[in-house]
Specification:
2 copies of one chain form a homodimer. The first copy, chain A, is an all-alpha fold and 226 residues long. Chain A has 2 domains: 59 residues, Arc Repressor Mutant, subunit A (Orthogonal Bundle); 150 residues, Tetracycline Repressor, domain 2. Chain A contains 12 helices and no strands. In chain A, helix 6 packs antiparallel against helix 12. Chains A and B meet through helix 8, helix 9, helix 11 and helix 12 of A and helix 8, helix 9, helix 11 and helix 12 of B. Chain A binds a DNA duplex (30 and 30 nucleotides) through helix 1 and helix 4.
Chain lengths: 226, 226
DNA sequence: GATGCGATTCGTACTTAGTACGACTTGCTA
DNA sequence: TAGCAAGTCGTACTAAGTACGAATCGCATC
């Protein structure tokens, strides 16, 4: 026993660093990023961490809490622009960053709003947005509107982007083919025209619409600030 | 679409009208509306329908297909404004209707974009939006932007609305209490101010921000049309 | 060192849920 | 009235979350 102990201790400590709540959540995010959220099971996560399922539960209370933790880390990745930046520009920077972060963690978008308990990072983020709007001189009612409207747009855009069948304009052709094959192509002339004459063209990028919409909203908010 | 089966048969058929794909999907939507999407299991659905789990599978190929069918029905509920309506007004009507429908089926929002195969109603809806934008004289690139931007906003708003902790301004107080209790209230001055001085006031309604944002976007789109 | 304790780890097993397989039932048609 | 196709369901397997309690580990103290 004692002799074996010496050997196993060395190996064990080198091979199996102790788990922590943070390591568990981080590994869960990596798994979700890599294989999709539907592949994130406690068993698979334990496998990734080189441990057994029940060990996970000593660091997070359950899967729901794990998801809460993951969402909060997503929020922490959103860039926090300096508070002395012009308010409009600050919102632009933050929203753009949010889009990038959400695109990096597509699984997070449907989760963002469905978590019951807001984490500290989420609260920090919301507080920062409101502070920026307050700097813009918006009265409370307009502030609430601006807040709701920007969030809606960012989440909604991310939701769509997260579920694009393909990224580049390449595989788009096949998708279009499938749809055209399954349904009468003549029934959807505008859909076909948009796809063939625009979406499938070289320079197209869905993401470019983000900036367009963001500017529309920022313009509207600025107008309301007067 | 088919007429009711002959009810004049013996009590067996009266007690257990034959199932159909449509009846299964409708019952699934009712269950999800009533108890939440997480309560929608094949077993519970069978129970609601007065039958056994395996019977479901003779009408829908599996749960995923069932969800596809539900989503398509949600799209069919969105109002289709007359095609001779002024294009801006037509978009307004359609988007508002979409918000109402999505609020009625909160479970559908995260599903909308994640379904792999688009159903006929979804395609019809998209085609109609594009046709309306085309009537507005938008060139293809602006059309794509307008399309993406409106959809993002509507989905994002619905996503937030679907996950509001409470509807009226009433229970809001308790939620605010919890948050304030869990974290240092002084750390989130703007959040507290917005909540206490605006959200918790009598006339507040989150939904009113929808029209505000929608007008911002319609303005922006109209400007781009020139 | 030996010992004792809290922090971790994990083996076992129960529960819920999706669904494959094949047998049984039913209602209509020839 | 026999037979067939459509519809129904009993049984059972698999995947996944997780409760319970025992085994183990790491370290501080004597």
């Amino acid at each position: 026993m004692t002799t074996e102990d010496v050997v196993t201790r060395d190996d064990a400590s080198a091979r199996k660093p102790r788990l922590s709540r943070e390591r568990v959540i981080t590994a869960a995010m990596e798994l979700a990023d890599r294989d999709g959220i539907e592949s994130l099971t406690i068993r698979a996560l334990a496998e990734d961490l080189g441990t057994k399922p029940m060990t996970i539960y000593h660091h997070v209370a359950g899967k729901e809490v794990l998801l809460d933790g993951m969402v909060d880390i997503v929020f922490s990745e959103i860039e926090n622009p300096p508070t002395d930046l012009e308010w409009r520009e600050a919102l632009r920077v933050r929203c753009r960053s949010a889009r990038v972060v959400l695109a990096r963690h597509p699984w997070s978008v449907p989760l963002l709003e469905s978590r019951t308990s807001p984490g500290p990072e989420l609260l920090r983020h919301h507080e920062a947005v409101l502070a920026t709007l307050a700097r813009g001189g918006l009265p409370l009612p307009q502030m609430a509107h601006a807040y709701a409207v920007l969030d809606s747009f960012v989440y909604g855009f991310a939701l769509q982007e997260a579920n694009l069948p393909v990224q580049g304009g390449e595989g788009m052709a096949e998708v279009a083919q499938e749809i055209a094959a399954a349904f009468d192509p003549g029934a959807y002339p505008n859909l076909v025209r948009l796809t063939v004459d625009h979406v499938m063209k070289p320079g197209y990028s869905f993401g470019s619409s983000f900036d367009v919409g963001l500017e529309m909203l920022l313009d509207g908010i600025a107008r309301a600030a007067e």
